[in-house]
Amino acid sequence: MANKRRGPWWDLPLTFIIAFGVVLLLTTFVARPFSIPSSSMEDTLQVGDRVLVNKITYRLRPIERGDVVVFDGTDSFVKAGEIPQRDLVTGTLSWLGQSIGVVPPDSTDFVKRVLGLPGDHVVCCDAEGHITVNDVPLEEAAYMFPGDSPSDMNFDVIVPDGKLWLMGDHRSNSADSRYHLGDPGGGMVPQSRVVGRVMNVLWPLNRIQAVSIPENFAEVPAPGLAN
Predict the structure, then answer these.
(1) Structural domain boundaries, residue 55
(2) Does the annotation mark 55 as catalytic?
(3) Whether this model's pTM surpasses 0.85
(4) CA 179 → CA 8, 24, 76, 96, 189, distances in Å?
(5) Catalytic residue chosen out of the listed positions 40, 99, 174, 177
(6) Which of 41, 55, 65, 117 fits a disulfide with 196 by CB distance 3.0 to 4.6 angstroms?
(7) 83 three-class SS
(8) Catalytic residue among 55, 76, 99, 112
(9) Would you say residue 26 lies in a domain?
């Protein structure tokens, strides 16, 4: 008896299934697209930008000041009891859509810039109105939203072990670590909640660019080494 073979009609759906599986593996473990949901990072990132989030960067190097990161704000920026629950079907479809960048991120996903690492002393503000990190003033005009001041709220914090102090570049429109000082965790985000580093803007085409660390952060010393 001749061996039965699948007809040519099977090739296209099989190819699609394999390709989709490869994409899901890459977005789960290597990098994933992320749609910017708010204006809190303008002008660095704008509403609707599609960015590439590298999920393996922090397996190769530690988080650095100045990194723009995507993180899960559960229990730091959002209380667990305030998170809407999805059923299995809705949750699965949402995850699939987010994995390929066609569904907006969850309400617990945020994107901010790292200003303080564990042990850092972060203060607003000095006599000239600058935020200081370990007594070094940050010159932030290169990435901060035009016309914004570094902060309209005063704060003086030391970042605990395993935590981060995160702020948006559009300071007057960013509910970041400053606004959660009175919450459990004091506005600090666990490093374990970081999904990955924002590496590039991929879309729209006229905004394709790398998202690099500003040079001013190189001047900040490690905790305890400030003059």
Answers:
(1) 44-213
(2) no
(3) no
(4) 59, 35, 11, 32, 13
(5) 40
(6) 55
(7) coil
(8) 112
(9) no
